[in-house]
Structures are given as C-alpha cells and as structure tokens.
Amino acid sequence: MVNQEDPRVLRTRQLIREAFRELLQIKGFDAITIKDIAQRATLNRATFYTHYVDKYALLEEITEEAFHKMIPEQVENAQEFTAEVCAELILMTHRYIVDFYRICRVDSKSIATLVNEKIKSMLQQIIESIFSKGNNHPIVERQHTKIISAMTGSAIYAAAYEWLTVGEIDRTDLLVDIVRPYVMNGLGLSQSLRE
C-alpha cells in the first residue's frame, strides 16, 4: 500500500499528472498510452500502475481535483440555495468547461463524455449538499432532493456547455441572466408542488 502523505509519493503523482496534462494538449486522450505518460514523467510503467489503475482513473482524479479547486467559498459554505449561490455555480461550471476545452484536445467523444458526466455528478453532489444542510428530511424527501439536485446540476451544466459552443463566451453576465431565473423559478415551482 502506498503512503499517500509521503512527499515522494506526492511528487511522483504530481509528475504523472503534469505529464498527462501536457500529453492531452499534444495527442488527445485516446492516443495517449501509459508508456507515453511514464516516459514524459521520467518514470517506468510499473511506477505509474502503483499510483493509478489506468489513464481513466488519472483523468477522473485530475477532473475532480481541478473542479474542487474552483468551488468558491460562498458555495462551499452555503446553507441554502440562493440566487447568488446559483450564479456562482453557473460561473464556476462555465469557467471549468472553458478551461478544460482550452487545455485538452478533445478529439474524442470518450474523454468528453467521461468529463461531462464527472462534472455533472460533482455539481449534483454540491447542490444536494446545500439542499440538505440543516434539514432532517424523511427518506422520501431525500429522494426528491437527489432528483431535484440532479435536474438542477444538469440544467446548469447544459447551459454552460451550450454557451461555450454557441454563446458569447466572454459574456458570462448574460449567461447568468438567462440561466439563473430558469433554475430559481424551477426550484420555486418544485418547492410549491411538494407542499
């Protein structure tokens, strides 16, 4: 078992992540092999496998790590899902998507699908956590919270992604003005239906 706190382990993992990021810009995900990553990181393949099962596990870790670094403090500490928190989530998701597509050559549907699903899942978890804070809902209510969180996260993600492809990428204020009322009105309607 590898000691995750050992400075040598942390350094090796950092080398692997940096090599992978560099290769994503050059080759694209599907073309990258473990041998490529190991060579660029100046390690052997066995060392790579000591730290990661495969390149998909590495991609998942990098995606999650980058996403969590972008979460604003206001969202992390939110006790309720307000219009301001909604705006922060929209902006954060848009920034993440833009950064991801700038850094990576996305010539493969497999990487885009994996990353898209991971981001939607993390968004759902954040939103569900905010909805659940301080409330002792019965199990049925928790199931509703999970569904509403999934729908809210999916709406935010889909709008941010669409904005990247067809919107005015630098007009994030306009993106927020379009998406936030939709999400907040939907949540308001959802709340009134449950009462």
TrEMBL record:
Pfam families: TetR_N. InterPro entries: Homeodomain-like_sf (IPR009057), HTH-type_Tx_Regulator (IPR050624), HTH_TetR (IPR001647). Residues 10-70 form the HTH tetR-type domain. The keyword Transcription regulation does not apply. Coiled coil: none annotated. Residues 33-52 bind DNA. GO terms for molecular function: DNA binding. PROSITE patterns: HTH_TETR_2 (PS50977). Keywords: DNA-binding. This is TetR family transcriptional regulator. It comes from Paenibacillus monticola.
